[in-house]
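Researcher: I need the complex structure. Ligand is zinc ion. Inputs:
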Amino acid sequence: MYTCGPTVYDYAHIGNFRAFLFEDLLKRWLMRRGFKVMHVMNLTDIDDKTIKGSQNQQVPLRQFTDFYVKAFFEDIKALNILPADVYPRATDFVSEMVTLIKTLLTKDIAYKSEDGSIYYAVCKFPNYGKLSKIKVNELKAGARVSQDEYDKEEAQDFVLWKAWTREDGDVFWETELGKGRPGWHIECSAMSMKYLGETFDIHCGGVDNMFPHHENEIAQSEAATGKKFVDYWLHNEHLLVEGKKMAKRLGNFYTLRDLLAKGYDPIAIRYLLMSTHYRQQFNFTFEGLDSAKSAVDRLRNFVRRLHDVDGGGDSKGKVATLTAKLEACFGGSMDEDLDIGTALASLFDFVREINNLLDSKMISKSEASEVGGLMMMLDEVLGIIGKVEVEEALTADIDAMVQKREAARKAKNWKEADEIRSQLKAMGIVLEDTAQGVRWHKEKS
Ligand code: AMP
Ligand code: ZN
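Model: Output:
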């Protein structure tokens, strides 16, 4: 799976994170269903924007982008996004890009313009426009575009290699193609094929990447290899602010850091951004973020509550029926093009019904741990409850039991002390007597 990563010229905004969170959910669901996922996410560290940014700050390009790469890794960690297997940086793969462009030149699909830049002739690739449904206008054929991004919904010859100009300053490579730098689109073709082969399964990105970026990736890769580039394209819709795409150039954006500085929980942000179906647009609002926080807290409190169940009750099979129903509903919805809305609705129905049983003390300790186990399993997909919280609750429970056993021993109540020791053993906890008192650790599984 290849996902177009951030352009590291600034902090990513939460619209970008909507894309990365959708991809995280997709990946986690594929893994849940038993697929072995090899995930490549590139870091665009050379393009018009990064060059401009480094010049404005008067620092070398690598130093400038390093700062935002580091920030990006901090942000995805805060959002509990699973790391990709590799994060290739475009500037480390220029020779692969040069090789690809040379192949396109040899096949007469690319051509050199007067200034030494190299362009892709879209009229030479009959399938051009298939992904984005853009029409190739014969009259416009040969019209060229040298910027990396262009909004115009029409096909134009796009740049593969940009000959050096004064504006590029000290950013250039001396190669067989001349002195210059790669265009943006060729970066993703070269890096994806380098790691995943000439044909691979899944390619993702936001809908704004469909044209021209992904259309151009297909054209470059398929013309060079003669093989199908990607089997499945998945594009997430935009996060909007007051009806408009959240974007840097519109100034209507929040970075993750903006929201964390206001005191918002990063996991509530994660929940908000991933809980709408990826092919639907949705508006960012602070009310939405507040309800995301309540939803996350409801789940966390539920898991804590399960840990507090101390036996006695018995649901007479109700819990088993409810867990089976949840597993089927959640799984069935996620299999249906990641229908997260329905999956979450079934989860909250389940939480409500189990809470009712808990209120009536109708749940046994083993049923509670079965439900807890299911919650942990679902959380491997959702990533919102968090192991830490449960571990903390568990640690507190164990500490309390150890202290209770110590008190029983002091009172020479050997029977109770032994009982607690066996209960702990059943939970996989081993006690050891040390000079500093009793310590415990988890049995190695
Ligand atoms: P960029 O750093 O601009 O290359 O974008 C990184 C990813 O974020 C790409 O997959 C974009 O399509 C995606 N993206 C950009 N803006 C938004 C938005 N407002 N909502 C959702 N995804 C977005
Ligand atoms: Zn890309």
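Model: Summary of the prediction. The two ends are 32 Å apart (CA to CA).
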